[in-house]
């Protein structure tokens, strides 16, 4: 179901003595209206169902709420309008209907000229986000190609048997691409050999997915990784950026179902995200798997908010 924006979440520190330059997101954000001018639209996907089906640690349904609270105090560094577009919430165990509804909302936002920043929820968010961007492209960008860049310790290419979950979204997307005669352009950045079985790597090969492993992302190989990402982006017209927060080391991102022992450190993740965001091709971004139950003194929430801040600044061309 759809939930209206709860603007009470957007509260925080106010520094009136500093005027406009001292404002924060909670002072700028407004509820999205039908006639709102194009802007950055935050949409939540409150879902535990994908992680539950994937035998993980549930709690991500509270992610959109806690992430908004963590983002409320971010400095308002851009003039682009900032909106809260409310939530899509999974009811009972009907994940498929919620993913379809998320897709419909994403298509509407893109068609109205907004940049959707979608906050999960488990990584089953990706199959909803994708449905939205794919429909928008069918309707308005017919000849254009889409690339999916997933920053993730996991390939998320599990078979949806018996049903889709947080571990299956990119396999489900590959199936949709096949049905619609579209190429499956998928790059996973940060995959861990300790967290993906050979079966999953074999599936990635079969599907023509590109993978940059966590161990390939070091200070001395950063430029190489940036080049590989730039090459991938060079081959597509639009990018759907999805960030599974468990790509970060467990010490900075404990607030996920499956924390990463090694992960991609934040100081290396940020320049890689810049490579993607500064391409100018990103039309949609989401943050997946944030689970506040496992956070430690808001460390994970603050890190996720910082990544949201980076995305917002780059896509608004600050
Ligand atoms: N979306 C993440 N999925 C991981 C979870 C791994 C785990 O729970 O250990 C996966 O399916 O591989
Ligand atoms: Mn993951
Ligand atoms: Mn994932």
From TrEMBL:
The keyword Amino-acid biosynthesis does not apply. Mn(2+) 1 binds at residues 123, 152, 156, 244. CDD domains: Formimidoylglutamase. Mn(2+) 2 binds at residues 152, 154, 244, 246. GO terms for molecular function: agmatinase activity; formimidoylglutamase activity; manganese ion binding. Its EC number is 3.5.3.8. Pathway: Amino-acid degradation; L-histidine degradation into L-glutamate; L-glutamate from N-formimidoyl-L-glutamate (hydrolase route): step 1/1. Pfam families: Arginase. Binds 2 manganese ions per subunit. SUPFAM superfamilies: Arginase/deacetylase. GO terms for biological process: L-histidine catabolic process to glutamate and formamide; L-histidine catabolic process to glutamate and formate; putrescine biosynthetic process from arginine, via agmatine. PROSITE patterns: ARGINASE_2. Keywords: Histidine metabolism, Hydrolase, Manganese, Metal-binding. It catalyses: N-formimidoyl-L-glutamate + H2O = formamide + L-glutamate. Its cofactor is Mn(2+). It is an enzyme of class 3 (hydrolase). Catalyzes the conversion of N-formimidoyl-L-glutamate to L-glutamate and formamide. Belongs to the arginase family. HAMAP family: Formimidoylglutam. PANTHER family: ARGINASE/AGMATINASE, FORMIMIDOYLGLUTAMASE. This is Formimidoylglutamase. It comes from Microbulbifer aggregans.
């Amino acid at each position: 179901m759809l939930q209206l924006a709860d603007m009470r979440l957007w509260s925080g520190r106010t520094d009136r003595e500093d005027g406009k330059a001292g404002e924060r997101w909670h002072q700028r954000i407004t509820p999205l209206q039908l006639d709102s001018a194009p802007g950055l639209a935050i949409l939540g996907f409150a879902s535990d169902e994908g992680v539950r089906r994937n035998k993980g640690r549930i709690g991500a349904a509270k992610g959109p709420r806690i992430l908004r609270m963590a983002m409320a105090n971010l400095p308002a560094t851009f003039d682009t309008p900032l909106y809260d577009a409310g939530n899509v919430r999974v009811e009972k165990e009907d994940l498929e209907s919620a993913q379809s509804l998320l897709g419909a909302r994403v298509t509407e936002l893109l068609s109205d000229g907004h940049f959707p920043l979608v906050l999960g929820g488990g990584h089953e968010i990706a199959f909803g986000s994708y449905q939205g961007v794919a429909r928008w492209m069918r309707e308005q960008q017919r000849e254009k190609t889409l690339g999916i860049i997933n920053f993730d310790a996991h390939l998320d290419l599990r078979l949806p048997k018996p049903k889709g979950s947080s571990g299956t979204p990119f396999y489900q997307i590959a199936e949709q691409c096949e049905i619609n005669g579209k190429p499956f352009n998928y790059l996973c950045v940060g995959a861990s050999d300790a967290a993906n079985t050979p079966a999953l790597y074999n599936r990635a090969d079969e599907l023509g997915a590109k993978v940059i492993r966590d161990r390939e992302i070091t200070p001395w190989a950063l430029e190489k990784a940036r080049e590989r990402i730039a090459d991938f982006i060079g081959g597509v017209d639009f990018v759907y950026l999805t960030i599974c927060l468990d790509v970060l080391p467990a010490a900075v991102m404990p607030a996920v179902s499956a924390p990463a022992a090694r992960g991609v450190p934040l100081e290396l993740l940020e320049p890689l995200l810049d490579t993607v965001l500064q391409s100018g091709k990103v039309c949609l971004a989401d943050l997946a798997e944030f689970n506040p139950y496992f956070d430690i003194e808001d460390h994970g929430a603050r890190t996720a908010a910082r990544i949201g801040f980076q995305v917002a600044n780059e896509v608004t061309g600050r």
